[in-house]
Amino acid sequence: MSVAEEFTALYGYEPAGVWAAPGRVNLIGEYTDFNEGFVMPLALPHTAVAAVARRDDGILRLHSADVEGPVVELAAAGLEPLCDSGGWAAYPAGVVWALRAAGHPVGGADLHLASTVPTGAGLSSSAALEVVTALALNDLYQLGLSRRELALLAQRAENAFVGVPCGVMDQMAAAVCEPGHVLHLDCRDLSVRQVPFDLAAHGLRLLVVDTRVQHELGDGAYAKRRAGCEAGARALGVSHLRDVPYAELSAALDRLTDDRVRRYVRHVVSDDHRVERVGALLDAGDVRGIGPVLTEGHASLRDDLRISCPELDLAVETACGAGALGARMTGGGFGGSAVVLAEAADTEALTKALHTAFTRAGHPEPRVFEAEPSRGAHRVA
């Protein structure tokens, strides 16, 4: 059955519409978003799809086709941050809370959700749930909010309701990405530039290697690194690390006495610079030239930010050793996925090499698939 048909079977009437929002993979720029820096994500063809209908009695009913359990029923007016709203249900519930807290007249709704975005893989399954909920409610309640406003409210839901201090990259990517493009996002003013990213025209592929190592950003490791970045900004007398020029990085590092903070600052400032380098290469049509920049970024994430893991390191090392143009882990780290830039003709051999390496190391086989730059959130029906 379709999501709309499942909604009807579940709630006894037809939904008002069906909406979709994608997961994302980040090409370059990690832990730079909350430092008001630059990122370059692209939307995946994997989506969270929601069949939704408005309710005028203030009741919020949530159901997932992917998680066993009954319908989660909540009072929209009684939602509170960090409340127990059913695990996955905290993401759509948090969006309702954020909309109401911002003064938007959102009452109740019935939602039935299904997602093909792998969870725990660093591909923003949570942002997809948040953005698809926000878009549906924006339409059903005729709120007239822009995609940028919806992304910010979705981020607010994850920060203040769920309790994960993420930046805005994931939600913006889910909301505004365009097919065939990578999104250059300035996380300070949220200005965007859609950069053409037609890999097929260059005989290239971008592969995602899902290591199947589940990550959990709510466990405190992400928050500790964010706090360390903020401490670095204070020590350097700037509001955010984005304000530290790359040309002055060495001098800035000499002023820091905490080795951990120094490492974090070095990663963020250099990764902001890597985003600009990748953007310039793509503008010049040198898509192959971004490969070494990706691999350089992985070394920074592994050694300075220290958010990689053996499986991610193995994926990057194996891919590069088997002829990839470049590779790096992507997302929040501590598991999840890597991205690999490769010649189209080499993808089969690369995939085989990855499976062989993981098997020999005693790891579960990774899931390898192509990342095709896809469409951001939209109404399906």
Description of the molecule:
The chain is about 40% helix and about 20% strand. A hairpin with a 5-residue loop joins strand 6 and strand 7 (about 190-195). The longest helix is centred in the C-terminal third of the chain and has 25 residues, at about 260-285. The protein is globular. The model has no long low-confidence stretch (mean pLDDT about 95). Helix 2 crosses helix 3 (about 125-140). The strands form two sheets. Strands 1, 2, 3, 4, 5, 6, 7 and 12 form an eight-stranded mixed beta sheet that branches. The protein starts with a helix and ends with a strand. With about 375 residues, it is of the alpha+beta class. It contains eleven helices and twelve strands.
Oligomer: single chain
Structural class: alpha+beta
Task: Please provide the count of β strands.
Answer: 12
Helix content: 25-40%
Major sheet size, sense and barrel closure: 8 strands, mixed
Mean pLDDT: 95
Secondary-structure element series:
HEEEEHEHHHEEEHHHHHEEHEE
Distance between the termini: 15 Å
Given the structure, what is the number of helices?
Answer: 11
Radius of gyration, Cα only, in angstroms? 21 Å
Question: Beta-strand level of the residues, as a percent range?
Answer: 15-25%
Low-confidence stretches: none
Question: Which descriptor suits the 3D outline?
Answer: globular
